[in-house]
Design brief:
Length: 80
């Protein structure tokens, strides 16, 4: 359990930094890392709970949301 939480913290810190730069949010590094860590922990716990309880319908909905996010990123990258 502890290695999983530590992994979420490290990944979350990096993700928070990247996300704030991609979204052009002007915050300092500790705040960006804090946002990412909280997001990773909440997202990781929430996703595990949803997948455990929801089955294939939730999995499909999350797959659609993930696809929408990738399309949005792709559109942003190709418009430059």
């Amino acid at each position: 359990m502890l290695p999983g939480v530590l992994l979420l913290v490290v990944i979350g810190a990096a993700a928070g930094y990247v996300a704030t730069r991609l979204m052009r949010v002007d915050v300092d590094l500790p705040t960006a890392m804090g946002i990412g860590v909280l997001g990773a922990i909440l997202g990781g716990v929430g996703l595990r709970m949803i997948l455990t309880m929801g089955g294939w319908v939730v999995t499909f909905a999350l797959a659609v949301l993930g696809s929408l996010a990738l399309i949005w990123v792709w559109q942003k990258m190709t418009r430059r």
